[in-house]
Amino acid sequence: MKITADMLREVYACDAAIRDFEKQWPGGLDITLANARKYANDSRTYGSEIDWASETLLSGKGLRWYNKVTDKDNLSKLALAEAFWRASKMEE
Fold first, then answer.
1. Which domain holds residue 57?
2. Which residues lie closer than 8 Å to 32 by C-beta, 6 or more apart?
3. Rounded mean pLDDT of 52-68?
């Protein structure tokens, strides 16, 4: 799965988020385990952003799996990001 600024526009992400995304990943962001971990370890990242991306960009089997494994309180950003990465593989 690759996230692009156009995808974010299609799901009505806020303008500031789209500008930040384009600045950081001008060619889009491939969802790899390494990128998921890097994003989770960024101090500017919030777990709610990972949940938003999952709920907005995943569907079907990947989204059902993500919701099942993340239905716990106080998961780390890294756990959420890795779950998003695994779920994105189910979307392919």
1. 2-90
2. 85
3. 89
DSSP reduced 3-state for 3: strand
- Compute CA distances 34 → 12, 15, 38, 46, 57, whole Å: 27, 26, 6, 17, 19
> Residues 30-43: pLDDT tens digits?
989 888 888 888 76
Helices (H), 1-32: 5-10, 15-24
Instruction: Please count the residues of the chain.
Output: 92
| Reported pTM | 0.72
Query: What tokens appear for 5 in the block?
Result: 């600024």
The total domain count for the chain is 1
